[in-house]
Amino acid sequence: MGEADGAGSITAALVVIGDEVLSGRTKDKNIGHIAERLTDVGIDLREVRIVPDVEEDIVAAVNALRQRFTYVFTTGGIGPTHDDITADSIAAAFGVSIDVDPRARAMLLEYIAEKDLNEARLRMARIPAGASLVVNEVSKAPGFRIGNVIVMAGVPRIMQSMLEAVLPELDKGRPMLSRTILADAREGDIAAPLGEIARAFPEAVIGSYPFRDETDGRFKTNLVVRSREPAVLDAAGDAVARMVEAAAGPG
Amino acid sequence: MGEADGAGSITAALVVIGDEVLSGRTKDKNIGHIAERLTDVGIDLREVRIVPDVEEDIVAAVNALRQRFTYVFTTGGIGPTHDDITADSIAAAFGVSIDVDPRARAMLLEYIAEKDLNEARLRMARIPAGASLVVNEVSKAPGFRIGNVIVMAGVPRIMQSMLEAVLPELDKGRPMLSRTILADAREGDIAAPLGEIARAFPEAVIGSYPFRDETDGRFKTNLVVRSREPAVLDAAGDAVARMVEAAAGPG
């Protein structure tokens, strides 16, 4: 992605934990939301991995990614049942102990009567040593942050609450700005002039996304120009828009 | 996942290639479809990675995954524009040359008039040396298979056509069977007996998936029992169903 992707940008990876996504039973709704929100605030999502509910796979993914990116987010696997192994896996990844955290237990008691706080539910208060908690406005059982790893729930509404709770405390870069130009043309008819524009604006990222317009059955193309620099976005975007007009014109 | 996941199973990983998914602009629709179809035919999807349009990232993901799994599928980045770098990246991953393939060129000419077969469109006929082609019934520009790596388009309709074209020639295992039991209960109220059932049936995979029922605003739980063995599925599924009934009963 060249110079548009300069050093100093704040980056992130996401690890989605769950057999149910890999089996196709559950359609993930978190990746798109997290990608949009991080882009909005100036954190560049650079990689996503979906891994099964297997400790060694979770540990391997988290340890590989936390070395490479500013932040690693995880979703899923922090509930009360036997297949919820994320907190223990993160403790293993960091080589720290894990136990019921009194702060987390107190949060659970805001939502669950003490008589209902059985052993299974107490699992949701198990937090790796040294982690800070991420509040959950929906159902109280918290997520947590250890080092640069932020552990969130898998239920979308709860995950979203945790993401908003943690975003204010994270470092952010300048947001990547974008402009989309719709071309009523097949990619292959505009690829050459588009490539020339991409070469002329190395500080912009220019993507070409074909799709089939279901209203008329035709293949069309969304051209997306991205830059952190408003002036570059304007200049490269105008060049793409002029090219698309010229391609559509008579001749 | 223990014994349910025995040796001899046929496994796969998926690499989704595209800045547009990582930026949140495009919501991926391929992961869920591929996960479902592979599960249907008896191929276990074990990991998904979403990576940007950057050659070294694509090469690293494909080379890591093709060592570990029976098959690696990729989606995206095989069109005619400057940002379509998947074919070149796969050639680099395998250390082979890449050039316009006469078979692929002939396929393009079924759909595109020779006068419109410009240099950009000819990029879609660039195929790594030694690869076989995967036909595309929608718009002809083919995918390809090299070693255990299957390269498909990103446009869902085209990807689906390619997936159906390639599935018949792949090895398959016994399909993982599944049964879902809805519990009108919060996870924490059934976690203990569910854990006992999971321990009693080590050959089954039992997952617990909480969700908020938007019709009544209550948190409920889907319990999913999975096994390749119909008798195990029945026995473990019946045990879960009885437990759910008992939990709901007067008491």
From TrEMBL, chains A, B:
<dbReference type="InterPro" id="IPR056596">
    <property type="entry name" value="FLAD1_M"/>
</dbReference>
<dbReference type="Pfam" id="PF00994">
    <property type="entry name" value="MoCF_biosynth"/>
</dbReference>
<dbReference type="InterPro" id="IPR050101">
    <property type="entry name" value="CinA"/>
</dbReference>
<dbReference type="InterPro" id="IPR001453">
    <property type="entry name" value="MoaB/Mog_dom"/>
</dbReference>
<dbReference type="Pfam" id="PF24102">
    <property type="entry name" value="FLAD1_M"/>
</dbReference>
<dbReference type="InterPro" id="IPR036425">
    <property type="entry name" value="MoaB/Mog-like_dom_sf"/>
</dbReference>
<feature type="domain" description="MoaB/Mog">
    <location>
        <begin position="13"/>
        <end position="173"/>
    </location>
</feature>
<protein>
    <submittedName>
        <fullName>Competence/damage-inducible protein A</fullName>
    </submittedName>
</protein>
